[in-house]
Amino acid sequence: MVKERGRKQIAQNRKARHDWSVLDTYETGIVLTGTEVKSLRQGKASLVDAFATVDQGEVWLRNAHIPEYTEGTWTNHEPRRSRKLLLHRGEILRLVGKIKESGLSLIPLSMYFSDGKAKVELALARGKKAHDKRHDMAKRDADREMQRHIGRIRKGRR
Known about the structure:
The structure is a single chain. By secondary structure, this protein is an alpha+beta fold. Helix content is 32%, strand content 33%. The protein has four helices and seven strands, in the order βαβαβββαββα. The model has no long low-confidence stretch (mean pLDDT 85).
């Protein structure tokens, strides 16, 4: 059996960095059933409305959508069930402290296979206000315009 190497992207929460300011990221394992893994290998998953919670010392991924495996039988999984995330005890305690003291949230940024194992990139994040989002978009547009101008100068055009 040949073990695959590297990182294969399954799903990404593209809107997360727009709506949240990411303070810290964690790579977590995820507890899955057989049909969920097969469905993920087909590249089907969605993290659009997903979030993570800490309940009784365990971290859970909620509302992530992994569609039913098309070849599955009665043993198929429920698409939006809660899934346990695997972190070290010290990391969980640190997360609990940060979440409670400063009102931060746990947001999944992406889901991928790393060396054949399903992983979730979890972010400790603070929600952005509307004016923060406008400021970030204006900064991004200004940077893009500056890069265009630098490119024109290098090519000899103005």
